């Protein structure tokens, strides 16, 4: 597919520079029409992926990236949809496979999908108050009660921040480190709570 | 013969008879452990291998995997316990009949393992009393068999009641015969 086919038909689309596949920035108002056009006219019949993006320096901060595959010509196209008021139209009616992907993006980032048939969380439990993949959310987690009150009462256990000692090993950003990767906050263990 | 503090303190029956009964009961229990496979992650694959012909858990009388907690007496927690799943694990444990034992198989079930994150319970011993911890990520089937044999040894040492510690408290379950 020539990239001009899309930009001529949908003038609001912006062609972005990309090294691997044709990439367009799609406004939310055009998203459904673009996905339907790509599916019915251009043969992009498979939804390869749909995921959320949190880019705090940008305005709008949240967005959705959709990868579509043309199974006949083995071509990919990537659509970047900046959210408007943290909301993006749902494409689950066009690609049923988007249903759970959109639930995951909602669960992890708090992006609303307008017109989604089943807008519930998919990974965390329904009463969980946060969206864990947002940049400001700490990896260790935030203390909340267990979802089952009776189990919490019997065991005295809540959802507690996980100690980072010996945890996910990271290297310092930027230049290559000489030492071994280490946990982010080694002062914090099960026995010594975070100060 | 098991010497324990929990037998009848009656001169008529005498401690000898009771402790012998304990030994027999413990011997029977230790050789008919029916595991409840709580397979939550990759450790469950090793658990299945342990049940297969190559490693053959039935050599030790533990091959009767029961997927109903009401028919099982040893829950093998094999895998990462998330906070969302913790409720289910505890409910299944509550539905098992006494006497019951719990094995934490692998790093995740024992301590949260490499999953230091918002979603993972840092050790299943936070919600159920654990008898045996097995290290490994995942443990090989031999390690599971070794853990099960350690559990057998532990069962053989048990007195007329079941004592287990959970969060510093001692929980005691009297066995009525």
Would you kindly provide a brief summary of this structure?
By secondary structure, chain A is of the alpha/beta class. Chain A has helices spanning about 5-10, 30-40, 100-110, 150-155, and strands at about 15, 20-25, 45-55, 60-70, 75-80, 85-90, 110-115.
From the alpha carbons, calculate the radius of gyration of chain A and give it in angstroms: 21 Å
CATH class of the largest domain in chain A: Alpha Beta
Q: What name is given to the CATH topology of the largest domain in chain A?
A: Beta Polymerase, domain 2
Largest sheet report of chain A:
5 strands, mixed
What's the β-strand tally of chain A?
A: 7
Query: Helix coverage percent of residues of chain B?
Result: 25-40%
Number of domains of chain A: 2
Mean pLDDT of chain A: 87
Say what the CATH topology of the domain at 34-155 in chain B is.
Rossmann fold
Strand content of chain A: 15-25%
Q: What is the distance, rounded to the nearest whole angstrom, between the alpha carbons of the first and last residues of chain A?
A: 57 Å
Oligomer: heterodimer
Number of E-type strands of chain B: 6
CATH class of the domain at 34-155 in chain B: Alpha Beta
CATH superfamily of the largest domain in chain A: NADH:ubiquinone oxidoreductase Nqo5 subunit
- Rounded to an integer in angstroms, the radius of gyration calculated over CA atoms of chain B is 17 Å
Instruction: Please count the helical segments of chain B.
Output: 5
Low-confidence stretches of chain A: none
The DSSP helix count of chain A reads 4
Strand content of chain B: 15-25%
Mean pLDDT over the full residue set of chain B = 82
């Amino acid at each position: 597919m020539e990239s001009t086919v899309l930009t001529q038909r949908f003038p609001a689309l912006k062609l972005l520079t990309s090294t691997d596949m044709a990439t367009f920035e799609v406004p939310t108002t055009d998203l459904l029409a673009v996905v339907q056009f790509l599916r019915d006219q251009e043969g992009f019949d498979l939804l390869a992926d749909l995921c959320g993006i949190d880019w705090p320096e940008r305005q709008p901060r949240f967005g959705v990236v959709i990868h579509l595959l043309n199974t006949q010509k083995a071509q990919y196209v990537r659509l970047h949809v900046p959210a408007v008021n943290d909301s993006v139209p749902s494409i689950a009616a066009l690609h049923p496979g988007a249903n759970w992907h959109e639930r995951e993006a909602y669960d992890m980032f708090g992006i609303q999908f307008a017109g989604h048939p089943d807008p519930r969380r998919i990974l965390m439990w329904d009463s969980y108050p946060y969206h864990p993949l947002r940049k400001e959310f700490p990896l260790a987690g935030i203390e909340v009660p267990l979802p089952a009150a009776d189990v919490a009462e019997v065991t005295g256990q809540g959802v507690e921040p996980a100690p980072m000692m010996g945890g996910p090993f990271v290297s310092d950003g930027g230049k290559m480190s000489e030492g071994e990767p280490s946990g982010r906050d080694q002062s914090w263990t099960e026995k010594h709570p975070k100060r | 013969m098991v010497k324990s503090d929990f037998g009848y303190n009656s001169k008529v029956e005498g401690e000898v008879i009771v402790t012998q009964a304990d030994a027999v009961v413990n011997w029977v229990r230790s050789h008919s452990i029916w595991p409840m496979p709580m397979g939550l992650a990759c450790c469950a694959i090793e658990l299945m291998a342990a049940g297969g012909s190559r490693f053959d858990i039935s050599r030790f009388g533990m091959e009767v995997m029961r997927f109903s907690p009401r028919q099982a007496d040893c829950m093998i927690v094999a895998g990462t316990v998330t906070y969302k799943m913790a409720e289910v694990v505890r409910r299944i444990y509550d539905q098992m009949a006494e006497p019951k034992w719990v094995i934490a198989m692998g790093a995740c079930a024992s301590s949260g393992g490499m999953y230091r994150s918002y979603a993972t319970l840092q050790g299943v011993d936070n919600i159920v009393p654990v008898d045996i911890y097995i290290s490994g990520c995942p443990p090989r089937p031999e390690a599971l068999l070794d853990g099960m044999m350690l559990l057998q040894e532990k069962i053989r040492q048990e007195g007329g009641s079941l004592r287990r510690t959970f969060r510093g408290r001692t929980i005691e379950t009297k066995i009525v015969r």
